[in-house]
Amino acid sequence: MRLGNALLVRARMAEEAGDRKAARASMELALAKADSLLASAPSLPEAHILRAVGFTARADLMRDENPPMARADMERASASLEGLVRDYPATPEYRQQQAALLTSLANFHLAQGDSAQSEAILDRALAVQEDLAQRVPWVPEFRRQVAGTLNDRGILFATSKRLDRAEKSYIESEKRLRDLVKSHPNAADYQQELARTLLNLAALRLQQKQPQLSSPLADEAIGLLTSLVARFPNEPARKIELARSLGNAAVQAQQAGAPDKAASLDRSALDLLASLPPASIDPDAIYLSAMTGNHLAELVEVRDGMKAAEPIYQKSLADFRNLVALPGARPEFVRQIIEVLLEYGFRQIRADAVEKARGAWTEALAAIRSPAGTDMADEITDLTTKLAINLAGMAQFDHQQARFDKAHEMLALARDLRRDRLVSSPTVGQGALALARLELLEASWREERNNKKEAIEASVRAGEQLVRGLSAKGEVVPELTQVAAEIAKVLAGAPVGGKAAMVLASMVKESLDSANTPASLAMAEVLVKATRLDEAWDLLQRLDAKGVKDGEWMKKTIPVAPPAGPRRDLHARWLAAPGQ
Q: Which residues, including other chains, have CB under 8 Å from residue 235's CB and lie 6 or more apart?
């Protein structure tokens, strides 16, 4: 048993040092030790607890990297504890651990977006804890755990917009914690738990449009945590908790329309984190510093401009870079630095600092291509799509400024990124639209160099991507119509026959099949202007058969009626109809 517990301690130390691989290896050795003990003594309670704690630790480690595995580990841990509770119903410790695990499992489901499952599990945890608190009233910790789960239920209800139920849960949690603080004034953990609930209630008051009720709650919470830091100056965890709460209060102050107060709270949080001894600065503290610094920089930029905010942005980015450089960097760190670099680039564009934006987006590209970014490719396809569009936009800007080499470099990066990632984008229409735009830019660039053949080839590729976008049933992407017209214009000007004609025909067919009338009419107009009248009239007849008629379009595009026959009849029917 001692070996198993020692392995879990070693795992925790490795995780705190950022070595996730070593942490997981130690956890799995501890689990193997638990299995070995259970094989020889199936009823040994300590072995069941070791197994449950080991699975819980591995679930916490893997919750972002491998959610299905984390869920399975939590369920295995829960099964181990349920067996102990069943076999030893009079042992409060086992029921306490069972409730704590249920709470973790509920929070996991909430993070995965399954609020119904989370609520059901939290209700089970609360029932166990309430029963314990009533059976063993002389143990105040059981009452604290009830209050903590009520706070968790408040978070669940607030997240799912059930504000009245969230309010009831937070207020009940607050009431119980105030009773505990009153009866145990020297118990620091009760004051800390009360501060957390007060901050959550403050955030809820903002959601309820009651900022006048929010600020006093946040101020009281900060006061409680500040007093704890003064009482325990040598406990870094207290400072980190206060810094985190100051950052949360800063966001709340900004939402309440008090940006100067928000900036002051952010600065206090950063000063507190800067005062930590080096040995206590773990990845979570660095992440907190990075996020708080980024928020402060945004506030300063709004008030004083980018020049004043730039040093704060750079410190925040340096923190993010340090996080990503850690061995086994957590997935959320990689995702966050990409998000921050994308937004930072936009802010530099607004400040006319194009080269700084280029540098930020190039760094974001490197993060996406890094081993950590490659491992989580499916989780960051949305960011990959945004970055590809940004790079394409940069290429377009360079092209307009006659910086053709720069334009081609940016376009090549965007196209490489597209090949690597965008094809698997879950947002099919948006992903396809991004790809089509990239290929159109390539076509434009080739056209500028008088390379008609390669321009048509790029437009063919754009058309192929557009067909994917048009086929995304139920996904509305209005820009597809404009892009469809641009692609069709190039393809309609290509020699008749060959791949260009095939892709154009596929675009026409898919626009009809997906009932995208604006795209169909845009392509019909292109065909008319390219004097490919047979194809244009065929498309109009197929639209007419689907009940589509647009008098304004016909009046503008084909004002003169054709000779007598089916086309003349169609022309008359459309002219008599209103516009789409």
A: none
| Burial class of residue 136 in the structure, from the number of CB atoms within 10 Å of its CB (0-12 exposed, 13-18 middle, 19+ buried) | middle
Domain spanning 1-138, CATH architecture: Alpha Horseshoe (1.25)
Annotated domain spans of the chain: 1-138, 145-281, 549-580
Indicate the DSSP class of residue 564. Answer: T
Q: What is the H or E stretch that residue 290 is in?
A: helix 283-304
Global pTM reads 0.68
Contacts of 241 (CB under 8 A, 6+ apart): 192, 225, 228
Mean pLDDT by 10-residue block, N- to C-terminus, for the chain (580 residues)?
68 73 80 77 76 79 78 81 72 76 78 80 85 86 91 90 93 95 92 94 90 90 94 90 93 90 94 86 87 94 92 93 79 87 90 89 86 76 78 76 72 64 49 71 72 79 75 58 77 73 81 80 86 88 89 89 88 82
Distance CA 274, CA 290 (A): 12
CA 44, CA 518: separation in Å to the nearest integer? 71
- What would the DSSP string read from start to end of 193-257? HHHHHHHHHHHHHHHTT-HHHHHHHHHHHHHHHHHHHHH-TT-HHHHHHHHHHHHHHHHHHHHTT
Spatial CA neighbour of 265 closest among 238, 237, 293, 235: 293
Which residues neighbour 173 within 8 Å (Cβ) at sequence distance 6 or greater? 147, 148, 150, 151, 154, 197
Same fold? 1-138, 145-281: yes
Fold for 145-281, please state it: 1.25.40
